[in-house]
Design goal:
The chain has twelve helices and twelve strands. By secondary structure, the protein is α/β, with parallel strands linked by helices. The strands form three sheets. The protein has an eight-stranded parallel beta sheet with strand order 4-3-12-9-8-7-6-5. A two-stranded antiparallel ribbon has the order 1-2. α8 links the parallel β7 and β8. α6 runs parallel beside α7. The chain is globular, with a radius of gyration of 19 Å. The two termini are 37 Å apart.
């Protein structure tokens, strides 16, 4: 009888850590080898490194050269920073080149729900994007700011309409520059039947606004619901240009990416069925209750290995 191929779902069930090493079948090891030979590109978000450094009493941004050396040492190919002005790109670009890290995507905050502030915010994003493009950036990720971070106030319908129009305008202008805008959300946008999230999708032109699917923020924002996550994948999968990856165990962020609350095997397989090869950004992070058993480089190295195995056939290539 021919050997049955391991499914992506079974991969995450098998990818457990035993005595410091991942127990993976030969089939999956060959998949990882293909990923390396074909140059699967895996990046990581600056937020992840900031919180891993922070729990050790270190400041990633103040030790950026050392920090980016650690990013490279963990086996990652790219780095997605957050930037608020072009000067931050000027500081970062030579260090990324030094450590042979690409910056295919960039995270820029925006404030788009207030008519008197939206145009100034758009201008700031465009200024940062113009500089970032020179450093190799192709995707600009933005999460329009809430009324108050951590607050309970929700945007009105009028504010959501203003925000969607501004987001579409920003996307159109970035498109004219040869860049792609990817909309990103946190848990706030999933409140009230996810009205903010859905209107940013429904109220914008897919030609101008794509989706950065942050799987765990969708999952958490919907009350730890995989049903909600996979429904969004079905509704907007064709618009996904970037994928943020984070895993948790019983609702608490895990120290490394692997088996857990979200069935990433199923998610990877569905992306493959849809013919989507997103830019993959690992955003494993720590919070209260996350185990603290390893240093940042070790944690990200293990996470990166799992991502490479899982997305060998479904991620963006080098």
């Amino acid at each position: 009888m021919a050997q049955r191929q391991a499914t992506r779902r079974e991969f995450l069930s098998d990818a457990v850590v035993k005595t410091g090493a991942l127990a993976v079948s030969p089939i999956l090891l060959s998949s990882a080898a293909r990923a390396r030979s074909e140059g699967l590109h895996v990046a990581c978000n600056s937020y992840s490194w900031s919180v891993f450094y922070g729990r050790e009493g270190r400041d990633f941004n103040k030790a950026l050269d050392t920090g980016l050396a650690d990013v490279a040492a963990s086996g990652l190919d790219g780095f997605e920073p957050g930037a608020g002005n072009p000067g931050e790109i000027d500081r970062l670009a030579p260090l990324l080149e030094k450590h042979k890290l690409q910056m295919r995507s960039l995270y820029v905050n925006s404030l788009l729900h207030e008519p008197d502030k939206a145009q100034a915010s758009i201008a700031t994003v465009l200024a940062v994007a113009k500089r970032a493009k020179l450093a190799g950036t192709r995707i600009i990720v933005t999460n329009p700011s809430p009324i108050a971070w951590g607050g309970a106030q929700n945007k009105s319908d009028d504010q959501l309409k203003v925000q969607a129009r501004a987001l579409n305008e920003l996307g159109a202008k970035l498109k004219d520059m040869g860049l792609v805008l990817a909309y990103h959300n946190h848990d706030i946008e999933m409140r009230q039947a996810a009205r903010e999230f859905h209107h940013m999708m429904v109220g914008t032109d897919p030609a101008n606004v794509t989706l950065c699917l942050d799987s765990h923020w969708v999952y958490r924002g919907a009350g730890n619901s995989q049903v909600a996550l996979f429904d969004i994948l079905e509704l907007y999968g064709s618009r996904i240009t970037e994928l943020h990856l984070r895993q948790s165990h019983q609702g608490v962020w895990a120290e490394t990416f692997g088996a857990g609350d979200i069935d990433y095997g199923r998610l990877a397989g569905r992306l493959g069925e849809l013919g989507i090869r997103p830019h993959i950004v690992l955003e494993q992070a720590v919070e209260k209750g996350t185990p603290h058993t390893m240093k940042p480089v070790e944690a990200f190295r293990k996470s990166t290995q799992v991502v490479r195995r899982l997305f060998a056939d479904f991620g963006e290539k080098a």
